[in-house]
Structures
1.
Amino acid sequence: MQRFAIGGRLFPLVFLSVYVLVDWATFIHDPPAINITPWNPPAGLYLALLLARPRGAAALTFAALMLGDLLVRGSPAPLPVLAISNLLVVLSYGAGVWLLALRLRFSPTLGRMYDAVWLVIMVPVAAVAAALGFALPYMVAGLLPWPDLPAIAAQYWVGDVIAILTVTPFLLLHLHRTPGNGPRRSRIETALHALSVAAALAVTFNPLVPDPSKILYVLFLPIIWVAMRRGLAGTTTAVLAIQIGVIIGLSNTPGHWQDLTYYQTVMVALAGTGLLVGAVVSERWRLEISLGQRQAELSRVARLSLIGEMASNLAHELNQPLFTTVGYTRACRQLLVRGGEHAAVLDLMDRATAEAERAAEVLRSIRGFLRQDGQPAKVDLRAALDGILVFIRPDARRHGIALAVDLPADLPPLWIDAVQLDQVLLNLLRNSMDALTNREGRESGDRIAVTATLRERMVEVSVADTGPGVPDDKVGPLFDLFFTTKPSGMGLGLPICRSIVEAHGGRLWLAANGPGGACFSFTLPVVHHA
Ligand code: ADP
C-alpha cells in the first residue's frame, strides 16, 4: 500500500484540532444537540484518516468523535451513551476499511478504477451499520423515541455518506497526487469548469425558482463535464464545491431547509455518479500511459532485432570505405617515400578522409536505432530516406533491384520522432526487399519506388514494389501482431509502423495490391509555416 505524507508526533494533535474546528464550523444545530445531521463533513475527515493511515486511526477517530460531542454539541447525553454510540460508529467504519484494505487490496491513493468503485460500494454499506450503531444506544437509554429510528438512521446515513463521498476522495487524491492524472488543461478551461459549477448552482438556487428541488438535475451537468475532462481528481473538487454550494444555497432559500435530507439524497446520487465517471476517465488515461510504455518497449525490441538483420549489410557497407581508406593511405606513403608531388599526396589524403567520413556516417545512422524513443521534432523526409537507404542499397545492388525516390522539391518538414520515422521507412523498405528477393524466379526490372505527395496538412508517403503482392487471404491479418509469412519473420514490423504513424496523428494502409506488386502508404503531419 502506498504511503501518505502524513504523520509525525504532532499529527494526532493537528488532526483533533482540525476535526473539532470543522465539526464546529459545519454543525448546524444549537447545542446541546445529538450528532445527527444531513451534512456531516467530519465523517469525511475520519474516513480519510482510517483509509490513509490505518495505524492508530481508530483510537484517534474515537477521540475526535468524543471531543466533538463534548466541545461542539455540549455533551447531549450521559458519557456512557456517547461512548458506546461513538464506539459503534468507529467499529462500523473500521470494519469497512479493514475489508477494503486487507481483503480487497484497496489502495487509498485511488489509483485504479477498482479502488473508486469499492469506495463507492463500501461507504453506503458501512454507513448503514454506523447509523444504526449510533442511534440504538440513544434509543436504549430512552433519549430518542423508538418509532423515530428509521427516520433518524436515514438522516444520519445520508449525512455521513454524502460527506464521505465528497470529502474523503478529495482529501485522498489531494494529499497524494497520483501520477497520470490526465492531460493538463488550460487555465481558460479550468475557469470555465469553475464557472459551470457556479452557473448550475445559480440556476438552481435563485429567487426566480420557487422550488429548487425540482431542478436539481441541473447540478449533474457540470459534474459530468468536469469528470470527462479532468478525471477523478477534478471531479472530487467539483463535487465538494457543489455540496458546499447546495448548503449555502439552501440556507438562503426560505422554507426549504427542512428538506435538506432530500437534497442530500440527490447529492449522494450525484457524488456517486461523478466519482464513477471520473474513475472511468482516469482509468482510460492510465491505460493510455501504460499502453504507450508497452508500445515503446515493443518498438525497441523490434529495433534491436532489425539491427541483427542489418549487421551483415553494415559489415559490407563499412568494409568498402575502410578498405579504400587503407588503399589511399598506403598510396600516400609510397608517394612520400618516393618523394612524389605534394599536390598528389594531398589529393590522396582528402580522398582517404572522405571515405573515413562515409564510414562514420554509416555508424552514426545505426546509432539512432539504439537510442530510446525521443520527442517529435522537425524531420526532413529526404534526409531520413538517405540515411535509411544506406542499409538497403547494398542488398538492392546485389539483387539488381532499382531504388527510385521521387519527393516534391518543396516538401515541408515532418513532425515526428526521427528514430521512429527511420523505423517505419526501414520496415516498409525491408518488406519490399523481402517480397522481391524471396519469391521464386527473379524478374528483371524489379524496383522499389518511394514517393511523397503533400495533402493539406499531411504528407502521404508511399513505398511501392514490383513484388508478388500480398495474397488475398493474407490481407486481413496483415497488421496483426505476430502475423508473418516469413520463416524468420517476427510479424512486428507492420503493427509497430502503424502504431508509430497513428501515435503521430497519421494513418498507414495497404494502398495498392496485386500480382504486379504491393504499395504501402502512410500519412504524417507536416510542420506549418507561419
Ligand atoms: P515480418 O516482416 O516480420 O513478417 P511485418 O509485420 O513487417 O512482419 O509483415 C507481415 C507480413 O506482411 C509479411 O510476413 C508479409 O507476408 C506481408 N508483407 C509485408 N510487406 C509486404 C510487401 N511489400 N509485399 C508482400 N507482402 C508483404
2.
Amino acid sequence: MSDNIRRILVVNAGSSSLKFTLFDMQNESVLAKGQVERIGMDGSLFTFESAKAKFKQAPTVAPDHTAALNTVCAALVDPEKGCLSSITEINAVGHRIVHGGAKYTTPVRVDETVIEGIRELIPMAPLHNPGAIQGIVGCMAVLPDVPHVTVFDTAFHQTMPPESYLYGLPKDIAGKYGIRKYGFHGTSHHFITVRASEVLGIPLDKLNIITCHLGNGSSISAVKNGKVLDTSMGMTPLAGVLMGTRCGDMDPAVVVFLAKQGYTPDQINDMMNKKGGILALGNTGSSDMRELCDAALSGTNPEAKTALDRLIHSYVMYIGGYYALLGRVDAIILTGGIGENSYEARGALLDRLGGLGVIPDDARNREFRFGKEGRISADGSTLPVYVLPTNEELMIARETYGIACK
Ligand code: AMP
C-alpha cells in the first residue's frame, strides 16, 4: 500500500446525477457514500451516509456537477456528519465511464486527450458519456491536485477476438462508424471473475467461467483463461438477453420494418430501450422482476408466466452457447439484482441447465440472497453455479488505485 494513495473517491456521474463512494483502500472499507440527484434542476436532492450520519437533504442547490461535488465535499469534512478532516485527504478520484470504444482497453489517467476521446464516443453512448464528461470536469474543478482515473464499462471486454466482435456488415461502413460489439457491465464481470478465481481456488489465467450480470440491464459473458471471449451486449447495451425495459436480441430487420411504417428513429429507440423487455411482455405494468415473478407464479397472469419463460429462455440460450464456445467451464456465476436476489428466477434457470450438468438445490438457492455469497447448485453437479455479489464501485477504486500509484 502506497502511503500517498489511501482514500479514493469513486464517482458515477450522469447528466443530472452524481453518485459517490469514498473508500479507505487500507482495508477497502466504505467511509461514505451517497448521491446528488436533479443536478441543474429546481430542488436538487442530496443523500449522504457515513459512520456518523445518514440523511436526505432537499432542496439542495446544485446548478452543475461542480456545485454537486462541492456539496459532497462539504459533508465529507463536516465534523458532525463527515469522515475527513480536510478534503486534501482524498488522494485520487475514479470515474465510471460507460463507453470507451475500442480505444480504451484499460483504465487511464485523465487528461485533455482522454476527455476528448470520451467526447468522440458520444454518438455511441449519447445518454451516458456527456454526463460522465460533466462529472469529470466538475470533479477536476473541485479536486484539481489529485489524479483522476477513468474506468470504462467496455474495457474488460476488449480481449474479444474479431470472431466475437465483428458484425456481418460492409467493412467500410462498420469501420467508418466503429460499428462492432463492445460489451458492457465490464467492471462487474471483471469483479466477479477475480472473485470467482479466489472462491474456486483456480488461478485467473486458467479460469473458464460464464459470468451472468442479471439486473434491470443484463449481460452474460464467456470468460476463458480469465479474459472475455464473448459477451451478450453489443455496440450498445441493447443487445443480448431480455431485460427490464430493453428488448434484447431480435431480427434487426424489425427496425427497418418499423421505420418503413413511419416510426421515427427516436420512437423506435424508445420502444426498444424503454418500453420493451419485461415491461412490454409481463402484463404487470412494471419492469421489476419481483412483480413479474409474483404475477407469473400466482397463476393468475399467463402473460407474466410467458414473459418469465421468455426471459429464462434467453439466459439459457447464451449460457448454452458460451458453454459450447468455452469447451470446459469451471462454474456459472450469477450477480446483479436478479442474480443476487431472485431465487424464483434462479430456480427457473437452474431447472433448465440439467443438460450442462447443473443440479439445483432449492435450500441453497433460498439461502444465498441479499449479499450472501455461495454455491446454489447441489453437491453432485458437474457444473457448479455460484452467487457472487458484485461491487463495481470497489472495482473502480482498485483500478484507480492501481493507476494512481504508478
Ligand atoms: P439491478 O439493475 O442490478 O439493480 O437489478 C434490478 C433488478 O433486480 C430488478 O428487476 C429487481 O426486481 C431485481 N431484484 C432486486 N431485489 C430483488 C429481490 N429481493 N428479489 C427478486 N428480485 C430482485
3.
Amino acid sequence: MKVLVINCGSSSLKYQLIDSDVEKVLAKGLCERIGIEGSQIVYTPAGGEKEITVSPMPTHKQAIQMVLDALTNDKTGVIKSLAEVEAVGHRVVHGGEEFASSAKITDEMIAAVEKCSDLAPLHNPANLIGIRACQELMPNVPMVGVFDTAFHQTMPEKAYLYGLPYKYYEKYKVRRYGFHGTSHSYVSKRTAEFLGKNIEDMKIIVCHLGNGASVSAVMGGKSVDTSMGLTPLEGLIMGTRSGDIDPAIMEFVSKKENLTMDQMMNVLNKESGVYGLSGGLSSDFRDLEDAAAKNDPAGIRARAAFNYRVIKYIGAYAAAMNGVDAIAFTAGVGENDALVREDICASLTYLGIDFDSEANKVRGKETLISKADSKVAVVMIPTDEEMAICRETVALV
Ligand code: AMP
C-alpha cells in the first residue's frame, strides 16, 4: 500500500510517500514558507536528485497540490496517478485525553481534535489545516491521525498530575501529556527488538535529543513517565526552549524586563535552551561543539547544562521504574553527537553501565554502544517518525 505521510506546521509541511509493503520511502520533501513571500517545495525521489522549486503557496491547499503534482510528475514523479495513494497519515500534535491511540479521520474525530486545540494553539490548528486540505484534494482516500501525545496516555495519575489545585485538572485538563510519543514508541520497540528481548519484560529509558528534546520511561512497552508536560516546554533544556524552571522566574523577570506574559513565553520558547545559555551563539550542537573545542565558555556551559539535565532525568526514571534494562539515544543530537552520549553515560556508571567508546563512534545505524556485559544496555537507535505514522495508518485503514 502507498501511504502519504504529512506533518503540517503553521508555515511548513513535511511529506513522505512510503510503500508500506516493503517499508520503502518512494519520495520525500518539504514545503517551506507557506503563506509567506518566497515559498518553495523541496522534492527528492528515492535514488534521484533533490529538486527545489520556488513557487507561490498562499495556502496549505496549494502546498499539498504541489506535493501531489511532484509525486505524479511525468519525468521525476514516483507514481502514475493519485489513485495509487491509498491512505494518508497525518501527524497531530495534541490529542489531549481524547486520544490514547491513533484514529481514523472522521468529522467526529476532527471535532475532538479541535477541542484539544486549546492545549496546543500553535500546532493543532496547523495540523487540521493540513487534514482539511488533503480531504479536499483526495476526498475518497482514508486518512488517519497519529498523535504525539497518545503513547504517553498510559502514564499513571501520580506521574501526570501537577501539584496544583485539582480543580484546574477537573476544569481545564491541566496535566502532563508528554510529546514525541511516536518516536518514544518506535524507539522503545526497536530497542527491544534490536536487543532480542521481549518489550513486555523490559524497563527502557528513551532519550529523544533533538532541537526539541524529551526523555521517557517505558515499562513493559508502556510509557509510565515523560519529561514534557502540558506543552512541549517542560523537561530537558532544548535548542531554544528552557525546559524546567522555577515558575516564579516568570514574574521576577517579567517585572525586571517589563515583559508581558506573551513576551515571557516567547523568551522561554525561542530565546532560551542551549541557545540562550550560550549567549545566543547557536541552538545547533555542532556549533556548540566547535565552540567548546576552542574552549569558548559559552559552548562549554550550554553543553554541560544540557547533559546534566539529561543525566538527572535518567536517574529519576530509573527510580520511577525501580530499575532500567536499556537506555536508547535518538533524534538529531542523540543520533549524531557521540560526545553528548559519552559525557552523559560517564555519569551513569552507578547503574552498572560499561560504555563502549569505540562502538559509540557510530552514525546512522542501530548500534549497541555499551560493552556486551554492561548491566544496562545502551543503544543508539535512529528514530523514524514517518515510518511509525505509516505503520499506524496501515493498521487502521
Ligand atoms: P532534530 O530536531 O531531531 O531534527 O535535531 C536537530 C538537531 O540535531 C540540530 O539542531 C543539531 O543540534 C543536532 N545535530 C544534527 N546533526 C548533528 C551532528 N552531526 N552533530 C551534532 N549535532 C547534530
